[in-house]
Amino acid sequence: MVKKKINKKQLFPSERHFGVVLESIDSKIDLLVEGHQGLDKKIEGFRKEVGERFDEVDYKFEIVFGELRLIRNELKEKVGRDEFALLEKRVMVLEKSRK
């Protein structure tokens, strides 16, 4: 689109005033666009930082879950309190019978 050159001297005062108002609005919109671009950069940086932290947390949870699996397997191989009490009674009976 080609802009026409307008002779400002030929404009009515109300037209000149309207032009001034439009220029003011235009400059304010430019400020809004700049602010929006700045916020976009900040949000993108925040997203990156949060993503990195979530990656780190996920990695640490993988380690913790791996350790829990090992502990659970080790505990499955051990004797429970009830079984231990029963075995203890059986050993006492056997020791008494050997005497």
Write up this protein:
84% of the residues lie in helices and 0% in strands. It has one domain (12-98). It has helices at residues 13-77, 81-98. The chain is an all-alpha fold and 99 residues long. It starts with 12 loop residues before the first helix and ends with a helix.
Topology summary:
Layout: H1 13-77, H2 81-98
**Element order: H for helix, E for strand:** HH
Form type:
rod-shaped
Which class of secondary structure composition applies to the elements?
mainly alpha
Average pLDDT rating: 88
- Radius of gyration based on Cα positions: 40 Å
Main beta-sheet strand count, sense and barrel state: none
The total count of helices amounts to: 2
Structure at a glance:
The protein has 99 residues and is mainly alpha-helical.
Which terms would index this structure?
mainly alpha; single chain; 99 residues
